[in-house]
């Protein structure tokens, strides 16, 4: 089972990182008792527990924020080392902020700095071992697919790369009566010389995916029942795609999926709590980024002239279809839409030099903190789209209007999982991730998305 992107292989990384951090902290504590005995507080063991919690939690949150627990991260050791260095700097800054307000948990002079240096060394060694042993194989399961038609082809469509299949080994496809389209010859097919049940036993199959186009009276129900009793996981292909990719196969779900899987609106207390949380996060981000806001405004003026506008606003579609005005730093030339509304695209000539930098690091989105505080937007949710484009997408893409069941956000699950899109096909792909978020949305998922958005900002993955 998975909790969003959490699986066995990155769980091993999380646990091993904590062990490294704990060992470093324990050694540092022994070192302090020898060389800092007079300056250590006399508050008892509970204080050491608080220090360990703050030290380890800030480090592991920072490690998550730079993408080191991303199961699809394919980076060289040099790139991993850079990310660990960034994580150490982030953790040091975050812990300094905490220790400023909770001075009772502070460390003796230079001890905390030594602990972070030792932690960086330990994490580097841990990652080198992980990379050299191919730790992702810890999570791989042998699976087969019942079906070789249109529904079964979803696996190749949604998970083309090996990096998309880090959790399973696909042994092959079993052709079923009623499969509409046979898959290409390059796809591994299984010719059963004995019963399906015997094949599952002989090949140590751990999961059977139901991907047949025609199911009524066509599935070997008794065989599947026996396999399930023997510990084999039986999974519908739509649920399999959702679990492995974090998206919903929009073209293959039925209206009943929306009825049974869309959460009801939160209570007034829940909505008020969400607004308080959004206001708190917005205020915190504003406190950290106000120098960037001033610098961004200054550079926009320097590039386009003293009398050029700094901000621009656009109408966007919010929750339940409500239209509101969104605010951004202007990243395009002043007359960018004289010919009407146009979607931005890669290498768009309307984007200014300063605007390209602002987009890359998401600085152009900072004025939307006002929208969050005002209540038009949440910090996490599907990105709000313009009314002109919503009308077009709503008539062309099934279930597109379901995006408006929740409040739009500054960042979202689709922004983590899919690159910037500028076409109808991209809108469909992003909707798959938005529907996944709508189905699974929770406070913990919002926190996970907020933390992982840091990777996009720090390493310039925005646009």
What's the gist of this structure?
With 463 residues, the protein is of the alpha/beta class. It contains 16 helices and eight strands. The strands form three sheets. Strands 2-1-3-4 form a four-stranded parallel beta sheet.
Topology:
Blueprint: H1 8-35, H2 45-65, H3 77-101, H4 111-133, E1 141-146, H5 154-158, E2 168-174, H6 196-202, E3 207-210, H7 221-229, E4 233-236, H8 237-245, H9 255-261, H10 268-304, E5 311-317, E6 323-329, H11 353-360, H12 369-374, E7 378-380, H13 387-396, E8 409-411, H14 413-417, H15 424-440, H16 443-458
Parallel strand pairs: 1-2, 1-3, 3-4, 7-8
Antiparallel strand pairs: 5-6
Question: What do these coordinates show?
Answer:
The protein is an alpha/beta fold. It folds into 3 domains: 8-137, no CATH class; 140-245, Rossmann fold (3-Layer(aba) Sandwich), CATH 3.40.50; 268-458, no CATH class. The protein has helices at residues 8-35, 45-65, 77-101, 111-133, 154-158, 196-202, 221-229, 237-245, 255-261, 268-304, 353-360, 369-374, 387-396, 413-417, 424-440, 443-458, and strands at residues 141-146, 168-174, 207-210, 233-236, 311-317, 323-329, 378-380, 409-411. It has a 4-stranded parallel β-sheet with strand order 2-1-3-4. This is TIGR03013 family PEP-CTERM/XrtA system glycosyltransferase.
Q: Give the averaged pLDDT, no decimals.
A: 85
User: In what order do the strands lie side by side in the largest sheet?
Assistant: 2-1-3-4
Order of helices and strands: HHHHEHEHEHEHHHEEHHEHEHHH
End-to-end distance: 34 Å
Can you tell me the residue ranges where pLDDT is under 50 for at least 5 consecutive residues? Answer: none
Number of domains: 3
Structural class: alpha/beta
Global geometry:
globular
As a percent range, the share of helical residues equals 40-55%
Percent strand: 5-15%
Say how many strands there are.
8
How many helices in DSSP terms? 16
Largest sheet descriptor = 4 strands, parallel
**What is Rg?**
26 Å
Domain Bacterial sugar transferase: 276-458
Keywords: Membrane, Transferase, Transmembrane, Transmembrane helix
Organism: Photobacterium chitinilyticum
Membrane topology: Multi-pass membrane protein
